[in-house]
Write a structure and sequence with these properties.
This protein is mostly helical. The protein is about 75% helix and about 0% strand.
Length: about 325
């Protein structure tokens, strides 16, 4: 039952990172966009589904709190500062999306959307990096958290550019593809740095068995394939605009699973594991009914929201004119 519940927590985490990751990335990308029409267009591309994407964060928190209360009670005080910043940033960006969408032009709300997205991404990365540090209540975060914070923000930026290329047209599509290649390569480099630097933290990877080594290497190979696919199809000349997001999703999921393969069952250093943090079996069975019923519903909602708006492409006036040189 412990492994099943851990799998449920991991599912919620990965769904959140991929889905909310792209709309946080779009928000970060607006900070680098000078054209106000393009900034508003980018905001509108995520206004259709951002609230459903964040439902996975709620399920993640509930699943961790209910299934692994000892881990929840240990992690929350240690990562209190970044998690609090994340919640406030998500509130700001949620309000900004609705305000800017209802009363355009709204440059200040669009700027708030971008800053809120960046702060949320950095905070999530810092909280993730703190899981490799010695836990101290109220203590500051270390260098590894700073590295993972930047890595997550750049990774989200790559997802955001991939989504923008899929949904935009004209000059915005061209720039999203070009900048997305740079962001993807930078994200791959930072992810490699995180994997290499984790050996110097309080929670190094456990690759002591052939099975773990094979799983770790195999998953990293999948990640490389996904990232190569993303870079190849982010080129503005490529018309397979949905593939960059698919490739990046494969890369993100594969890297996360590789880390889990090398860390499970350790949840936090030095000795907090899934086995000694799990709820009693009776509680788990009771919770499995409630959470188990909600997960399929949220999965269906996430699929339907993206399926229903799959053909929606935002078009700015210049999209009706010739594309930039090199796009043909």
């Amino acid at each position: 039952m412990t492994a099943v519940w851990f799998g449920l927590v991991l599912l919620c985490l990965l769904m959140y990172v991929v889905l909310d990751g792209y709309d946080l990335g779009v928000g970060i990308a607006t900070l680098f966009e000078r054209d106000p029409r393009h900034r508003h267009e980018m905001l509108e591309t995520v206004a259709l589904a951002w609230d459903g994407n964040e439902t996975w964060l709620v399920l993640l928190g509930v699943s961790l709190w209910a299934g692994f209360p000892a881990a929840f009670g240990t992690i929350l005080p240690h990562a209190c500062v970044p998690l609090t910043l994340m919640l406030f940033a998500l509130i700001v960006r949620g309000v900004a999306v609705e305000m800017a969408s209802q009363r355009p032009p709204a440059p200040w709300w669009e700027r708030a959307f971008g800053i809120g997205s960046l702060v949320a991404a950095l905070a999530q990365g810092a909280a993730a990096g703190s899981l490799a540090e010695n836990f101290t209540v109220g203590g500051g975060l270390g260098w590894y958290s700073a590295l993972t914070a930047v890595s997550v923000a750049v990774g989200y930026l790559a997802l955001g550019y991939a989504f923008t290329k899929w949904k935009a047209s004209g000059a915005l599509r061209f720039r999203a593809g070009r900048h997305g290649i740079v962001a993807t390569i930078a994200a791959a480099g930072l992810a490699s740095a995180c994997l290499g630097a984790v050996e110097a933290t309080a929670a190094p990877l456990n690759l002591g068995s052939p099975v773990r080594i094979a799983g770790f290497i195999g998953l990293l190979a999948f990640a490389v394939v996904g990232l190569v696919l993303a870079v190849a199809t982010l080129r503005p000349a490529s018309r397979r605009d949905g593939l960059p997001l698919c490739g990046l999703a494969i890369g993100v999921v594969a890297i996360a699973l590789a880390v889990v393969t090398a860390r499970y069952p350790v949840l936090a250093p030095p000795s907090l594991t899934a086995d000694n943090a799990v709820s009693p079996s009776g509680t788990m069975q009771f919770l499995a009914v409630g959470v188990g019923l909600n997960v399929p519903l949220v999965l269906f909602y996430s699929w339907y929201a993206h399926y229903a708006f799959r053909g929606v492409r935002r078009t700015t006036p210049e999209a009706h004119h010739a594309a930039p040189m090199g796009e043909h």
